[in-house]
Design goal:
The chain has helices at 45-52, 75-81, 98-106, 112-122, 127-138, 154-166, 184-199, 211-217, 235-239, 242-247; strands spanning 5-16, 19-30, 34-38, 60-65, 68-69, 83-86, 172-176, 204-207, 220-225, 228-233. With 254 residues, it is an alpha/beta fold. It has two domains: 1-78 and 173-178 and 204-254, Rossmann fold (3-Layer(aba) Sandwich); 83-169, P-loop containing nucleotide triphosphate hydrolases (Rossmann fold), CATH 3.40.50.300. Helix 3 (98-106) packs across helix 5 and helix 3 runs parallel beside helix 6. This is ABC transporter ATP-binding protein.
């Protein structure tokens, strides 16, 4: 029996001033799946993610999370429904420690000022602090607990943001170029973390240009070009698809 659909993208189109950034994109992501969305620059990948998280409203179509419509909701509402997104540039609290960053994420349903008051009141020995410490230790950041987040390397900032996302226990994790600008060692370390998420049964959608990352993680792949889906299938099917190779000429070779 097929696993339930977590994310349903229902014939979504998005037009900007007469330009079709997305055209009739239809896609289902099932529970526990790691699904990669690839394509050349300008294919509509980030636009699609922005539609899913409420940053943009589609011109046509709709997006549903486990049967609940997301279209028309604000980003914080979509986050509270169980969608976590990791952006191309890590979004962390640079002036807080690493463990405080994760505690803030765990208290994400609170407003920012109230979260800060909770941090100052309970500190990192609270139940929240202990859970944050364990999450960081499990994912290789245990040695940085009390370091300021802003002082971390780019790779460690990305890993911190990933921990901040996963401790929210999302129904769906959306990753927008999670290894952009990383050296190969940092990329491989990030792949290792994402494999742990995958093994835990988390549902993941990843936009990525690095085909090493894509083929290391993806169960299925959707290829966009010119705002349209040109191919969809298993990794081996995508590798041999002539439409995909043609779409990547001058960009990435799959």
């Amino acid at each position: 029996m097929s696993k339930p659909i977590v994310l349903h993208i229902d014939h979504v189109s998005k037009t900007f001033g007469g330009l079709d950034a997305l055209s009739n994109v239809h896609l289902d992501i099932r529970e526990g799946e790691t699904h990669a969305i690839i394509g050349p620059n300008g294919a509509g990948k980030s636009t699609l993610l922005n539609v899913c998280v409420g940053g943009l409203e589609p011109t046509k179509g709709k997006v549903l999370l486990a049967g609940t419509e997301l279209t028309g909701r604000r980003p914080f509402e979509i986050n509270q429904l169980g969608v976590a997104r990791v952006f191309q540039t890590p979004e962390i609290f640079a002036d807080l420690t690493v463990v405080e960053n994760v505690m803030m994420a765990m208290l994400s349903h609170r407003d920012g000022a109230f979260r800060l008051r909770l941090l100052s009141r309970f500190g990192d020995r609270s139940e929240t602090g202990l859970r944050a410490t364990k999450a960081l230790t499990d994912l290789g950041l245990g040695g940085h607990l009390n370091h300021l987040a802003g002082a971390l390397s780019r790779g460690d900032k990305r890993r911190l943001e990933l921990v901040m996302s996963v401790v929210q226990q999302p129904k769906l994790l959306l990753l927008d170029e999670p290894t952009a600008g990383m050296a190969r060692a940092d990329t491989n370390a990030t792949i290792d973390i994402l494999r742990k998420f995958k093994e835990s049964g988390m549902t993941i959608v990843i936009i990525e240009h690095d085909m090493h990352v894509v083929f290391s993680l993806a169960d299925r792949i959707t290829v966009l070009a010119g705002g349209r889906v040109i191919a969809q299938g298993l990794p081996d099917e995508i590798k041999g698809n002539p439409k995909v190779v043609e779409a990547y000429l001058g960009e990435e070779q799959v």
